[in-house]
Design goal:
Its EC number is 3.5.2.7. The protein is of the alpha/beta class. It has 18 helices and 16 strands.
């Protein structure tokens, strides 16, 4: 075996593994007691995988005589797994700052949507935008996420609502995968809204008969690699029956079910997701007790989005009830033109303050459980041997500062590392 490794991080004040026994997700007490090594070190191999993590002196003797392409002295700093953002809509043209003003003045999300604005506004601009324009703004947004510590992100289509634009958005995501180090889980979300001029039945038919077959073709040819299928299951958008038909068709194509449910009205989306074997349901502000029980039983994760409730002044998702029932709770930024937030540290802070999660629960939700929601917790979401070497160095003596210092991530995150490569180094030199 070669004695050369890609990265040696030594003498960190804390190394937060999150979990250390190959858990695929954490629930209940498991989210409260995270695995943390005080005075730890970690080694990543040339294949980008974690080779060892443990007490600093143990690792030092284990790797005596080995050579490393890069060594970081992490004295006084903390190491945590790269953050995983379980829900974003980052491919679009046409921001909605004007609409933010309307909502601040009292307009609701659905009033704006039903007036033909909201998602429809973004759809018009996204249809007109070229692939290059979309790729350029997407890359800026992904770089911003990366600087905020996100190393794997779920990214949706859904501002086309017809075959060509949906495929254009997914193609743009494919190009971003080739040119940026951040990990991307792609989601087809052609059922994000009912396009103007169509009924729900017509839109569903178009998805089932035109868009999904078109997508399948591109996947078979290797042009697109799509992981998940999504529907906005909501009163006035896609009802339960149309949602079921679309999700089932996606599942039949091999896509993981990961959809928007029970956001503004109780729709029994949670029960539907549990019945269909969904991997994840997002939002859930209006989930019922029956829905929570069904998700706990089916191991369908709840991707909670604190920015949505905050910006739209909605009731908070019932995180505590879900946690107590044993639901696998994950977090996402919901980055989109309505909720312009790229920062998982801020999302974790909001989850703690507004949804009453503890800091340990929030970190588990933004790492191992978010990885589970994307079907990637075998390779991502904790610092364990043979998992991908995705991690952050936090310039503080306890990792919790990343949540505590609201907005402080811009200074606290010293390095972002993916597969053992430094992909961002924070240079705080100001020259005065
Ligand atoms: N609720 C539906 N979809 C997005 C909002 C998308 C938009 O308004 O452009 C969400 O998750 O918050
Ligand atoms: Zn969304």
């Amino acid at each position: 075996m070669s004695n050369t490794f890609r990265l040696y991080i030594k003498n960190a004040k804390q190394v937060v593994l999150v979990c250390n026994s190959g858990e695929r997700y954490l629930t209940k007490d498991g989210m409260q007691k995270l695995s943390v090594i005080e005075n730890g070190s970690l080694v990543v191999g040339k294949d980008g995988l974690v080779k060892a993590v443990g007490q600093a002196d143990t690792i030092a003797s284990q790797f005596e005589g080995a050579s490393f392409e890069n060594v970081i002295d992490a004295s006084g700093m903390c190491v945590i797994p790269g953050l995983i953002d379980g829900h974003t809509h980052p491919v679009w043209a046409g921001d909605r700052v004007h609409e933010f003003a309307l909502k601040l003045a009292g307009a609701t999300y659905m009033e704006v949507h039903q007036a033909g604005e909201g998602i429809h506004f973004t759809v018009e601009h996204t249809r007109q935008a070229s692939e290059d324009e979309l790729l350029s703004s997407l890359k800026q947004r992904l770089r911003r996420m990366l600087r905020a510590g996100t190393t794997l992100v779920e990214c949706k289509s859904g501002y086309g609502l017809e075959l060509d634009t949906e495929m254009k958005m997914l193609a743009v995501l494919e190009k971003a995968k080739q040119s940026l180090p951040i990990g991307i889980s792609s989601t087809y979300c052609g059922a994000h809204a009912v396009p103007k001029g169509k009924t729900v039945a017509e839109a569903t038919e178009d998805i089932l008969k035109v868009q999904l077959p078109g997508l399948r073709e591109k996947m078979v040819q290797g042009e697109l690699k799509v992981d998940n299928i999504d529907v906005f299951c909501e009163k006035g958008v896609f009802d339960l029956d149309s949602t079921r038909a679309i999700l089932q068709a996606g599942k039949d194509m091999g896509l993981q079910i990961n959809f928007h449910g029970d956001e503004l009205h109780p729709m029994n989306s949670a029960q539907l997701g549990a019945e269909l074997g969904a991997l994840a349901i997002s939002h859930l502000e209006e989930v019922t007790n029956e829905g929570i029980a069904a998700m706990a039983k089916s191991k369908t994760s709840a991707v909670l989005l604190p920015t949505t409730a905050y910006i739209l002044r909605l009731p908070q998702p019932r995180a505590r009830d879900m946690l107590e029932a044993g639901v696998i709770v994950a977090l996402g930024s919901d980055f989109n033109p309505n909720a312009y937030c790229c920062s998982m540290p801020m999302v974790m802070h909001l989850a703690c303050v507004n949804m009453r999660m503890s800091m340990n629960e929030a970190l588990a939700a933004a790492t191992i459980n978010a990885a589970y929601s994307l079907g990637k917790s075998h390779s991502h979401g904790s610092l364990e041997v043979n998992k991908q070497g995705d991690l952050l160095l936090i310039n503080s003596s306890r990792w919790e500062h990343l949540i505590y210092q609201f907005g402080g991530h811009q200074e606290l995150i010293k390095y972002v590392i993916i597969k053992g490569n430094i992909v961002y180094e924070n240079d705080k030199t100001m020259g005065y």
